[in-house]
Amino acid sequence: MPENTPNPESPAPVEPEEIRVGVYTCHCGGNISHVVQCERVAKMVGKLANVAVSRTDPSFCSDAGQAIIEQDIKELGINRVVIGACAPSLHEQTFRGAVTRAGLNPYLYHHVGLREQDSWVHASDEEGATEKAMRLMAAGVAKARLLDPLDPIRLGAEKQALVIGGGVAGLRAALDIARQGIRVTLVEKSPFLGGRMAQLESIFPTDEKPRQLLHDLIQAVTAQVGITIFTQAEVTGVSGYVGNFSIQVTQHARGVSPEMAEALTAACTQETPDPFNYSLTRRKVIYQPYPGCYPAAPAVDWQHYDGQPIQVNGKSIVLQDDALVHELIAGAIVLATGFDPYEPRQGEYGYGELSQVITLPQLIRHMALVKNGETLTWNGHPVRSAAIIHCVGSRELDGVHEPQADGQVNNYCSRVCCTASLHTALEMRQRFPRLNIYELYQDIRAYGRGHEEIYRHTQNAAVRFVRYHGDDGPKVIAAPKGDPYPVLVQVKDYLTYGEEIEIPVDLVVLAVGMMPRQVDDLVNMLKISRGADRFLLEAHPKLRPVEMAVRGIILAGTAQGPMNIQESLAAASAAAAKAASLLSLGKVELPPFVARVDPAKCNGNGACVTACLEEGAIALQTFVENGVEVQRAVVTPANCTGCGACVGACPNRAIDVQAWTLAQYDAMVDAIAMDWPELVEVEK
Amino acid sequence: MSLDNLHVDALVVGGGIAGMQSALDLGDQGFQVALVECEPSIGGKMITLSKVFPTLDCCSCITTPKMSAVAHHPNIKLFTYCDVQSVQEADGGYRVNLVQKPRYVDASKCTGCRECEYACPITVPSPFDRGLGAYRTIRVPFSTAVPQVAVLDMDYCILCGKCEKVCAAKAVDFNQQPEPFEIQASTLVVASGFELTPLGAKKEYGGGKLRNVIDPLMMERFLAPTGPYGRVLRPGDGKEPTSIAYVQCAGSRDTTLGIEYCSRVCCMYAIKQAMLISGALPLAEITIYYMDIRTFGKGYEQFYQNAQAMGVEFIRGKVASIREDDDQNPVVKVELTEEGRTIERTHDLVVLSLGMVPVPGSNTALNLPLGSDKFIAIPAPNASPCATAHPGIFVTGAAMGPMDIVDSIVTASSAAAAASAYIREHKKEAVYA
Lengths: 684, 433
Ligand SMILES: Cc1cc2nc3c(=O)[nH]c(=O)nc-3n(C[C@H](O)[C@H](O)[C@H](O)COP(=O)(O)OP(=O)(O)OC[C@H]3O[C@@H](n4cnc5c(N)ncnc54)[C@H](O)[C@@H]3O)c2cc1C
Ligand SMILES: Cc1cc2nc3c(=O)[nH]c(=O)nc-3n(C[C@H](O)[C@H](O)[C@H](O)COP(=O)(O)OP(=O)(O)OC[C@H]3O[C@@H](n4cnc5c(N)ncnc54)[C@H](O)[C@@H]3O)c2cc1C
Ligand code: SF4
Ligand code: SF4
Ligand code: SF4
Prior knowledge:
heterodimer, A: alpha/beta, Rossmann fold, FAD/NAD(P)-binding domain, 5 domains, five-stranded parallel beta sheet, 36 strands, 25% strand, globular, disordered N terminus, B: alpha/beta, 3 domains, seven-stranded mixed beta sheet, binds flavin-adenine dinucleotide, binds iron/sulfur cluster
């Protein structure tokens, strides 16, 4: 927990200066001005008390637009700025910068959202929208008159980062952050690094060996100064804020010592389905997923180990999970928790009901188990004909597909499965030349560099393409007894003009999409958001594409959405750039919109402390006043999110959120509720 | 701007969204950055767009603040209207020879008041508006340009001297000469972007000669609030179109043109434009002829579904040819691949969803190895996605192959991370003292 910093003093009383408000009504490149008559708004607002200048511009956020505001501050002595424009989330920072450059305190500026709150929602009512804009702007001016100068909360930032997830994205992020001189702790849940990439055999578009690439990357990570790796570890507690998160990591024991590993593995008899091979095979509960894995030492699968003793050299050994708890500090957290392949429902395209229906990840593992030169078999039968069905668990339609557990269908494209399917089909063609291969698709999305070439090769490699429509997908059924093939795929093929066809196959492969890894615990601990697709949500796809809305939390790789390896790497490096920008200066600034207690009004009843939703944000402290011990609420600004729960709870109106005070709200409400004739009067 | 020899940590070539983001990320970490742009303003292709998918944010609302941030960044030095002449390895970094092209306006004096522009009698087609609009021979390139400095186009100037006379800052200088200068940089980030496949590339689609067959950047200008007309019309006769068609993969995925790759943004921009046109011309019928719809990005499939729900017609078909009828209406001959027949349909306006190609000549001075698609080669995409074949030279944005704005911004930060690590390792900074 950070030390209690004293309550920021009430800002020094400003010299009673003349308040001169500059008001700027932005067209927002037409977004606002197509609906709201900005000139009229500007004219009306210009007549309000204290308003020294009122202007419009096609886009005040442009350099030229900002220059106008700066010039007014300098030349007209403007000391309060009100800008009616897009959403504050977009450009509040931009305008704060302009105001600061002109030498004014950045918090003497108020932003009115005329786009989201007005023109976009009242597009069909120009007159009404214009009146509303006048009222919103009038309220903005009323508030601006009461603005006080504020200073951001400046905090030291730990030059340390935490990366959660040790797949290709997490590894790359850790490496690139450490290369900037920032220490990194990498926390991986499983006992081994590499994530899902290790389960692939050959990757598009380069046909490289993924485990070799991972090996090289892991070698670079382990050789890099400043990286600590915890495997079999999970984040079990987080508190604090950007620049200074306190983190608790719980690390399970590997369970077997290096000296005993070989003997114990050999003696271990308990087996469990092998997740590395998507349960196609079984493995021991003391295991290495594959030769060459990192770390090389075997580990115990605690989830499946039954606790029974293992007999070694006449000794009976019970494996013990002596978990360790590590406490660490980090200035920023990178989430690289990755994806899971979509798990089809029981009966979806025959999955779980017909043994010949498997997923693409399973096929890749199955082919890896078939030795070179051998023929492809399934259930002991040679595979003569296989159909790959695209978009399973992706691009689902409301009303056509069964919703997921949360009631939503997966309406997104998983973007990797098309090229992964084509690439796998090509490999099948090379290894099993006589196999009949069908690709059942809606659109082939071979979008990336080198992907279209793979598509073209597949077309030239006697792979047969069948195009289905999403609302009338293929059906997979068991073939009637006596048929030469065990399974039939029935589909309307739009490459043959909607002909109903029946494809007899030995194997059906579902090109399943990507789902985010289950990270409910992290979402709750970090108070972060997910999108409707359940992937972790970026703050803004263009302005802050790898950052989350909570400052200091950064995204890398498929935790954010489907990506291939190249894209995961790029996103991970981008995350590293953001972590470095945030931490390399050793300090961060937080906005001063936090609660402030007026000690003169506080009677120490503590309602605020009960109401507060954050840990360590507000507490009662004992002071001596006129020789009497009294309790007064004290805010720790760094922990306060400025939510205002305490403001509502205080019976004495003793608490305000800075820059959003009760007095300012009162003034805004009065202005908004101004009688229309009065407004019109002003307008004339 | 001083043209003294300059030593910087990183030199970024190209001031589109990708180059700007790389420069900002490097500058934010305290590195000294030079950003070189060959045009008179930064902003790249993005600043000419209308609204941008998938959020339909107004484009200048995203771009202009970035341009401003670059201009005001204490660690970024901006060089506009400069060409890169050559790049040599030197002192473990790179020596870059550049030339400042003459603006015929003294940038240190010009206040951007535009008086010269109002005085100039000669009007020329504006490339910013893709030739649909016009501007003066001397002008600030566009209203949100950075820097706000006028530039004079000597090719059209009649030397009447009117601009010089009205300029209160005495900034017009007809005698300016190209000025060579040099920058030493530890690392380079190439963000030279893309060009559209030329409108005339495909003879079957009229070879660029049909008046009402346009390129998609023209449509962006029609749709942009800052555009030349402020509405959508046919360039042929100014008529408001009621039937508009998009031809997908025009100049991409086309072996006959030697452009075999997918340009990856054209499906999305066509859908976006169709949605924006539906807003601007509610009665217009919009048809998209496509082979595969590739809406693969985050939120993009939903965007496609919304367009379908709005009534945009998606027809799977191969457009064999486009001709013109007597009223200059484009007539599209399309093979309906789902029905096995070929039809002809007449539209008022056809937009060719052209692909992305590298900017011609943009790599001459850099001399980097190219891929088979002519974009800058990335030897190890699955290990170092932004590293070129030369150590210390990184690439981002559409210079590394077609990509949209989100991907350009992500790769820009990624290139910045690679570059900054390179600089630190290069300087042998003892980072864990
Ligand atoms: C069938 C298939 C084929 C593919 N083929 C290709 C291909 O040929 N080429 C290509 O470029 N891409 C391919 N991909 C995509 C590729 O697999 C992914 O892009 C890549 O694996 C994503 O890496 P990641 O690090 O984001 O996620 P992951 O690989 O999923 O790694 C995430 C890591 O985080 C760990 N983790 C999760 N939660 C926690 C937690 N709470 N705490 C700590 N650790 C946690 C996990 O254990 C895991 O190690 C394919 C994908 C599929 C499904
Ligand atoms: C019609 C159309 C609509 C689009 N709509 C969208 C959309 O809605 N959403 C979206 O996400 N994407 C959209 N895009 C894609 C978007 O335009 C690109 O992703 C983006 O512009 C790429 O940015 P960039 O910086 O890489 O390249 P560019 O924008 O091309 O910028 C490159 C810059 O480098 C400069 N330059 C080039 N060579 C040199 C050199 N040798 N020396 C110095 N400077 C040089 C250029 O002058 C230019 O300023 C659209 C594209 C088109 C064609
Ligand atoms: S990438 Fe292809 S298979 Fe995967 S969801 Fe998208 S369209 Fe379907
Ligand atoms: S001198 Fe040239 S640029 Fe200046 S006003 Fe005359 S024509 Fe225009
Ligand atoms: S993005 Fe769409 S239109 Fe563009 S080349 Fe690819 S498939 Fe064709």
